[in-house]
What we know:
Layout: E1 9-13, H1 39-62, H2 72-83, H3 88-98, H4 105-120, E2 127-137, H5 144-153, E3 157-161, H6 166-179, E4 195-208, E5 219-224, E6 230-247, E7 252-259, E8 264-271, H7 280-283, H8 286-294, E9 297-306, E10 308-315, H9 317-322, E11 340-353, E12 357-370, E13 383-388, E14 395-401
Parallel strand pairs: 2-3
Antiparallel strand pairs: 1-8, 2-4, 4-12, 5-6, 6-7, 6-9, 7-8, 10-11, 11-12, 13-14
Helix pairs in contact: 1-4, 2-3, 2-4
Amino acid sequence: MSKQLSIVLLFISLFTFSTSCDEATQANLPEPIVRPLSASEAEIASSANNFTFDLMAEIENEQPNENYFISSFSVNTALSMLLNGADQTSQDEFMEVLGLSGLSVEQMNESYRSLVEYIYGLDNSVSLNVANSNWYSDQFTIKQDFADVLTTHYQADIFERNFGSEATLNELNGWIEEETNGKIKNALESISPDEVMFLINAIYFKANWTSQFDPDATNETTFLLANGQSVEVPTMTAKVKHWMAYDETLKAQIIELPYGNENYAFTMIMPDSPSDINGLAAKIDVNTLNNTLADSTTYVRELYLPKFQLEFKSNLKNVLVNMGMPLGGLNNLFKEERPLAISKVIHQSFLEVNEEGSEAAAVTIIGIETTSVSPSTRVNQPFIFLIRERNSGTILFSGKLLDPR
């Protein structure tokens, strides 16, 4: 994993934040299709963004000195699909983790569908693909109501497969690779004998900067690390339009660099001191970010930005459990009544930032496995006992127990 960005918190915003900007756009870019969000869409977007910072804070607790790059939108989508197969108690817990307690499950599903349609229409010059799928063992029968929700609201592909076959693993990974334009490969390493379902979200994003950088102007410049040291890294530079704002609470500069017709942006939150980067995500919330960006200033001046590439892969199961995610209560996935639990939440991502723009991809795989009450053996009635040598069968002692008292 690249080490170039140990102090700058970077993420791609899939939901546009309010910013002050001029009306100029490139003449060759299509006009955005913008409309007001419905109340439930706005709540979904806001909750998803707050979930972003909650998830980032938990990951930082586990990996405080490592680069990471995630699509919280992908994780959020996979969890949203899964909660439709949970019982009421677990549904409530999922909704709490996602910050959606004010919505019904039906409102959440419908708002997800319409919100994805909305962000697809914001900029035709941006390549965006959001794909969902459900893979389940042919030894089980998926509940039709659950399958209908996935296909209707999440446009999910449903695959019934032999989970004991290597071909299934290859096909599943092939689906992910295709949906992420080849950027995410071999995301699922194996299928355990107990696993019976996988819920998958894949997302791919590629966009050019509104004003691109000249590759000939990219040079090695100094980058300050959190530990006080400095390194030389390839840095792009150009006189480009961007927005800047300062937040006193965060003690951080917020910089936005637009893509395409300016409805998508690369947002950077850079603390005053490099050593303050750890823990920064835990201080950010959507209201603070939106309010700060609402007062941002438009600049057209020289901007220096590291050129970099990140790859990240992690099992987020424990991170999400720490956030309150339930592991069980998944009674509405299959017709068969078997105890089920989440086995893993694999998240793998890729990001490249270069002179042309950014290319990003991510996948979230939630594995479901069969479980049972921990097996136990009870000796709770009178018995005869022997002490013997097992190889020869020689009995050394014998007896009978009628009353252990």
